Amino acid sequence: FDHTVICLTNAEVEQRNREYLKQLPGEEYVFDAVDTGSRTATDGFDYRSLQKLGYRDKVILKEGCRVMATVNTPGQRDRIVNGLMGKVVKIYWDGEEQPVVITSFDGLEKNVHVKRQKLTVYGRDGSIRFERQQIPLTVSYAATAHKLVGATLTGVWLYLPNSHGRQTEMIRQYWDSPWLQGVIYTALSRVGSREKIRVFPLRNTMDPQLMFPIFSMNPAASAFDALCAERDWLLTARQPVGPPPDVRDKERSCDSELLASVVDHITNLRREIENSKQKMLLLHHYTTSRRSAVSGEPINPVFYCAQNPALANKIDMLSVEGQKKFYDLLDEKLNLTLPRPNDEHLQRIVNDLANEAGDPSELRQSQTNPTLARDTAGVEEGDQELIGEREGSDLSHIEEPSDRMSAGGDLSDGSGTRSSQSDSESSEEGEDSDSDDAPFEIPPHQNDPPSDEPEFADQPFTVYEGNLYDVVSDYIKEKPHYRLVNNLEELKHQRKTCYLECRRAVSPRMEGREPKRGSRPDWRLWPTFTCPLARVKIIFRDGRCSFYPLRSANASADDWRCHDHFPGTEKCRSGTIPPDVIDDWIITLSARPCTSKSELKTMAHQKNMSGQYSAQTTEFLTQKGLSNYEAVKAALRSIKESRNSGLSVTAFTRSLTELSCGPDRLMGEVSDIIKGLDALEAGTHSARDLELARRADCCLVMENILCRTEPEKAGTGSNDLKAYSAVVSSPRMLRSLRSCRTMGIDGTYNLTHADLTMGIICSLPATSTAQPIGIVIMTK
């Protein structure tokens, strides 16, 4: 079998490696060390120690031989460490006529090209006295036990010194050396199987004296072993002698209180073991089933409750069904609900859920193993069975403050939130969806299909608290690339389900139908450019809205939560020009609105030449598709939407938000820039002050941009802007606030939107001209 020879001295190792190398076929390669500098006795350095440092005078190798790395090479691409073992694959010389040894090291997937490494010896004055370059490898058919500490070998042949039956004083002194203590254990423990160990020589004898001193017990260890045997209480213990049996037996039989206490103790112990077993199974279930959360790392609800002993005891008093229902609801609160509650709010929710989940005084009815196997071990197959029957009070009416996705003033770009096709659909009249008389729905679970629609996944990718109307209204404002299939007003009534469609996808109502000639372009013309995250189903129950993804999209929950499109790219703009070209034009025009048509066409051709477009687009551009004047003109007219006055408030505000500046930045970075500007003007600046002063005119947007819209007007499909305010400034302008006693505003009334105006906030000193502080964009 494959093996490594272990010897006890370096001399034996060298001898056996030479013999091994001679037996291998092939050419022998000799690598002499390349030395630079002089060796003088005054250096105080023992140059013979270079061998011990891994830089040998001469290295002899053959292709196919076993080798060991002798130095560490940190910071290199092909990093190796001292003691790493492998096999030489090939030896060659590179373009600089330097030897390279291709080595396959054990445990590394790729071969390593080992080149000469450099060792430098410095003098006391810091100058270079001597350098050596050498291949950091050595033959490792044989090695010392100390060199193999920490290594794992496939097999071991261990050679031990012997005297052929005679115990000489020399061998005895050799084995009495302190450095040999534990060396046999080190040598033999390199292999995981005793079948892969051979020891030479090994005497066939029953006399321990003939084995000495190769295998012997340390005297101190022998003394400790004897002391342990002497004090072993298992061997020295004796059965206590009691009183006559006739008296004690009667007293023991009458001690009913002691017997009852023992029974109670065993019962409590059994209950604790069952509780721990069930808790471990639940902990494992929620660890494996929940791999993502809407914000941050997922939190295991069982582990969260275990950190509160009082709460954990209350939960332990519930039945297994009650615990499962409680942890399902808590898992939803912790990992699927937006926004994630803070610790104080979450603790209040936990206590309320524990009180609602069941009466703590009712102990679980069954503690047998079959019940445990059904309720916990089989959570994947039995989730619906566990939660199918309600015990105790109703969990569906837990009232919590409705934390909305968007706080006052969600952004809107004026795009419609109602689909034209949905106007013809009938609405169901009835009571409000969040009334107390709403039908009971079981909470969403991992294996609970939504409304028997296999088209959608079983588990929601996110959950929002609040009624269906408010949640959906806020959601489509936050993500305007979605359109609501149903009428928004219908969500105020008894409807408990609605659907969202991505505007960059083909609606199911239009699938299979050919677009009419002369009609507006739509995504049926470009099936390869449509969004796979096409539809979302929203179900309202128990005061929460669960969002279910389209199963055929094969996307993760994080992909659905982050689903977005650059403003304007969700609409099909042209039936002639490919959408990826249109997308680039939209992105460019949003950053540089004055980009000309010729510049856009040139940009598209340059990107095509670099191979960044799809095959369909490349074919279109190669055939000079952009020379179609009318098609380009119509596409740009659709992008710029010159017929609709004003800009996109959402896109405009997003660009401002990227430059937002909060209190921490004002007190830190902006304050340092102002100090650097002061030092520059005073002539006392340093290099750092100069660097800071160069950023005195960088654009800053104050946080908390105000953007509120009016409710959608019937028949308009848009939301009017109600209130808007954004303040833009720079460190140089903010510096004027230091001496500001009187402040004024100059309204230029330059319209940037139908209802927006721009003004200049100024400091009005008594003895000089006005000094600008910031620019405000606001409603009239």
Task: Describe the overall structure.
This protein has 780 residues and is α+β, with helices and mostly antiparallel strands. The chain folds into 6 domains: 4-148, no CATH class; 156-219, no CATH class; 259-397, no CATH class; 420-561, no CATH class; 579-644, no CATH class; 652-779, no CATH class. The chain has 24 helices and 27 strands. The N and C termini lie far apart (90 Å).
List the helices and strands and how they pair.
Layout: E1 4-7, H1 10-23, E2 28-32, E3 34-37, E4 58-62, E5 66-69, E6 85-93, E7 99-105, E8 112-114, E9 117-122, E10 128-134, E11 137-139, E12 142-144, E13 156-159, H2 169-175, H3 183-188, E14 197-200, H4 208-211, H5 219-230, H6 233-236, H7 245-254, H8 256-289, H9 301-306, H10 309-316, H11 320-335, E15 337-338, H12 343-357, H13 369-377, H14 379-387, E16 462-465, H15 468-478, E17 482-484, E18 497-502, E19 535-541, E20 544-549, H16 557-561, H17 579-591, H18 597-609, H19 615-622, H20 629-640, H21 649-657, E21 660-661, H22 663-682, H23 687-693, E22 700-702, E23 706-709, E24 721-729, H24 731-734, E25 743-747, E26 756-763, E27 771-779
Parallel strand pairs: 1-12, 1-13, 13-14, 15-16, 21-22
Antiparallel strand pairs: 2-4, 3-10, 5-6, 5-11, 6-7, 7-8, 9-10, 16-20, 17-18, 18-19, 19-20, 22-24, 23-24, 24-27, 25-26, 26-27
